[in-house]
Amino acid sequence: MFITDIGTDIAKAKAFLEQGELVGIPTETVYGLAGNGLNPAALSKIYSVKNRPQFNPLILHVGNKSQFSRWALSLPERCTQLMDAFSPGPITFLLEKSKDVPDLLTAGSKRVALRIPDHPLTLELLSALNFPLAAPSANPSGYVSPVSALHVKQGLNGQIPYILDGGDCKVGLESTIVSFEDGAVIVHRLGGISEQQIRDVVGEEIRFSLSHAHPEAPGQLKSHYATATPLIIKDVHQVVTSSKGERIGVISFQKDYGKLVEVCKVLSPSGDLSEAAARLFSAMRELDAMGLDKIIAEQFPEEGLGRAINDRLQRAAFRNN
Ligand code: TXA
Ligand code: MG
């Protein structure tokens, strides 16, 4: 057991990581549970602290583009184009791994997931280290991802020595994961970069591989991001009339249902999907802490970041809808 400290001391985070310990790190998407990506003992700790199945590989975080050719065998042209457009930023690239990438990191796969996170503290940390950082989201496996240092502490208190506090995550959804096949871009997880943003860079050559049954990105399991309180995606009025006497919380896009239910989190009154994305996981966590009977989420518009929001809500709702 550790006393889990929260602070902004990069030297302290660096020292723990160099000793093979794990540290919570801020990124623009969600907080990561970071360890030395080349050290199998640190990688094992990540799986066990998160209670994550060992078949679900980890993303390797690097500080700059030149690192990609160190850990990937080759960079397809489409990859370079997307990196130039969006890295550092909320996009992860699945590429053929070089032999120096540990099999434990990729769960035996020949491909490695690489990403440059866009957060000043973590970029400074990465440039101070002489190894890349493996980092899944810093939550117990299956729960809602953390978007503040406090969320990390709530989930992992006592299990890690330090959380580097970089404030609230500004994107609030995990990175978009892509791979490349015959000149096409394959999207494995929708996240902080939308389909349209990718299309604007690479044109029409996009396919989706978001399969739930045999996911190529195993984090795409159907039930994930789940609150303990049952969450359903339904018309709010309809549920309210059939649930008399129940304490209900609502997650809505623009509309305030506060008069109908116990509590309503309006994610963006002005209708901005980026703002809604940045608030989604905090809203889920706050409602989950209230001991409500159920959480009703609205369906979001299937455009821009709305698709990634709906994806997270559907996985959270999987057991209940
Ligand atoms: O925004 C993010 O990506 C955050 C921050 C911390 O960087 N990280 C994150 O990690 O969301 P995690 O572990 O929660 O999700 C990573 C996803 C999983 O679905 C995993 O299956 C997939 O990436 N993945 C990682 N390596 C892979 C590989 N070699 N092949 C296929 N999928 C991979
Ligand atoms: Mg995760």
Could you provide a short overview of the structure?
The protein is an alpha/beta fold. It contains eleven helices and 15 strands.
Can you describe this structure?
- The chain is of the alpha/beta class and 321 residues long.
- Strand 9 (176-181) and strand 10 (184-189) form a beta hairpin.
- The chain has two domains: 5-208, DHBP synthase; 231-316, Threonylcarbamoyl-AMP synthase, C-terminal domain (Rossmann fold, 3-Layer(aba) Sandwich), CATH 3.40.50.
- It has eleven helices and 15 strands.
- It has an eleven-stranded mixed beta sheet with strand order 1-8-2-3-7-4-6-5-9-10-11, sandwiched between helices. A four-stranded parallel beta sheet has the order 12-15-13-14.
- The radius of gyration is 19 Å and the shape is globular.
- The structure holds threonylcarbamoyladenylate (TXA) and magnesium ion.
- Residues 27, 29-30, 32, 56-59, 92, 94, 106, 109, 111-113, 115, 117, 135-137, 174-175, 177, 189, 216-220 line the site of threonylcarbamoyladenylate.
Q: Bound small molecules, which ones?
A: threonylcarbamoyladenylate, magnesium ion
- Arrangement of strands in the largest sheet: 1-8-2-3-7-4-6-5-9-10-11
Major sheet summary line: 11 strands, mixed
Radius of gyration: 19 Å
CATH topology of the largest domain: DHBP synthase
Q: What's the overall geometry?
A: globular
Whole-Å distance between the termini?
38 Å
> Helices and strands, in N-to-C order?
EHEEHEHHEHEHEHEEEHEEHEEHEH
Number of strands: 15
What's the overall average pLDDT, rounded? 95
**Relative helix content:** 25-40%
What do we call the CATH homologous superfamily of the largest domain? DHBP synthase
- Distinct helical segment count: 11
**CATH level 1 name of the largest domain:** Alpha Beta
Percent strand: 15-25%
